[in-house]
Amino acid sequence: MTLRVAQWATGAVGREAVLGVLGAPGLELVAVKVHGSDKVGVDAGELVGLPPLGVRTTQDLAELLAAAPDCVVYTPRVAHVAEVADLLRAGVDVVTTAFCFHPARMSAADRAVLEQAAYAGGATLHGSGLNPGNFGMAVPLALSGLVRELRTVSLVERADWSAYESTRITFDNMRFGAPPAQVDEGASEFLAFNADLFRQQVWLIGDALGAELDEVVTEHSVGTATEPIPVFDRTIAPGTVNAQRWTWTGRARGTAKVVVDCLWSIGAAPADWPRAQHGWTVQLEGEPSVQAHLTTLASFAEPRSLADHVRAASAATAMQVVNAIPAVCAAAPGFATAESLPLVRSLQGFRPAVAAAGA
Predict the structure, then answer these.
(1) pTM (2 decimals)?
(2) CA 129 from chain center: how many Å?
(3) Do β-strands 279-287 and 255-265 pair in parallel, antiparallel, or remain unpaired?
(4) HEC-encoded secondary structure of 19-87
(5) Percent of the chain beyond pLDDT 90?
(6) Which UniProt keywords apply (predicted)?
(7) For 158-188, how does the pLDDT look when each residue is reduced to its tens digit (9 = 90+)?
(8) Residue 329 · residue 69 · CB < 8 Å
């Protein structure tokens, strides 16, 4: 049976999701919703560098629903609960990279709206991605199968934001280049939203593995630039933030059980920060202890451009939810999480990729 799929948003992750849907047997792209008015009415193939696909983009929810999708891949940078609730209420399953990683620990009000909509429409909602997502939830859960007795689970992310293409996200959302006082949950709605996603990830690991967490505590610090740092069309001025460290710690009776430590910078990070390896390091302390270091690149075997390597993270983020579509569509109405879904694997596998225009 072929599942009909619509794409919501065509940013860096959304474009990769479109390619993923096109390459996956059993999935059919039937609609694409865009944000910018300049993209309306464009053939979806044009947005991803492919020949015409016969699917025109729209900004209208009614047009998207008229295409009768079984599932929507919802990938805006900022999620809107009402939008997703409308889809669920209409009977459409939703996979998203934007939010809802562990509904049991999200805002009670938002959870109620989504849950009621899902049951009303007989639909399912699943949130995942890279981190938060696969590296912080599915990977630790899989590795825990090697361990008899767990003491701690940790994830350290080290990322250089200087090559990330969207300076709007880097500067406006993540607040790089802002004064230190503005890089804080209390000063930024987006940073507060982002921090909550990571807290949900910590809670999920704790809940799934019986940590009996009492709390998840957020700590953060920043570093500032000592000289101007150009970043594409923008500049980080001296004295403004060029490095952020966020740590989310799940504690049980005062003891740290689950820790996510993210070190993000453009240029040099503060000297007293951990000298972490670029990428993601997952570590389980127990009997026995297990560690895995993870990176995403365009290729480990062939020379590729920096831009290709940067896009690889967006592709991995998108594919985690695209590949989950059949399992989500088969799941019971309500919420599906990294804990409740079966192993998510590549749908396309070794099959040939869709060809780009002119190839």
Answers:
(1) 0.94
(2) 3
(3) unpaired
(4) HHHHHCCCEEEEEEECCCHHHCCCEHHHHCCCCCCCCEEECCHHHHHHCCCCEEEECCCCCCHHHHHHH
(5) 93
(6) NADP, Oxidoreductase
(7) 999 998 878 989 999 999 999 999 999 999 9
(8) no
